[in-house]
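INTERNAL AUDIT FORM
Audit reference: QA-55
Scope: verify that the stored structure record matches its stored sequence.
Auditor: D.O.
Record contents follow.
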Amino acid sequence: MVKGAEKMFNEDFMRMLELSQGGFYCSQILLALGLEKQGKENPDLIRAMDAIAGGLGFTGKNCGALTGGACLLGLYAGRGSTEDPLDSRLYTMIEQLVTWFEEKYGAMYGGIDCSHIIGDDAKNRSQRCPQIVRETYVKVLEILQENGFDPEG
């Protein structure tokens, strides 16, 4: 279980709702939360995350919660400059996340694309996506902690 899980279900979930009501999408919300946990702001990164919202720019492809979750893992373990060493845990963590997502949501909705999750009913976006984003965020925090990363730092 994630350290501070009770806080996540209260403060972080409320923050997710705020960001959603502010017009941000799954991928942007996940990265904004990660940056905030680290005490950082990066509007350019949040803007870039808009490109994978709605399944790679609203094409209905890979779910933005999944791709955003992978990017959130990269925020902690990815390289930011040529001086940063490659952390091989990143790809293992992404694989863990994808496997979990496929087993949970791929099995539930017949695939991991937004088009599978949302289907032909636009109401599904507001009914399904908040839970998927919340659970993906919790899973990312678990994966980070299991691999020796402190999400708060």
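Auditor finding: record pair retrieved intact. Residues 5-146 form one domain.
Action required: none
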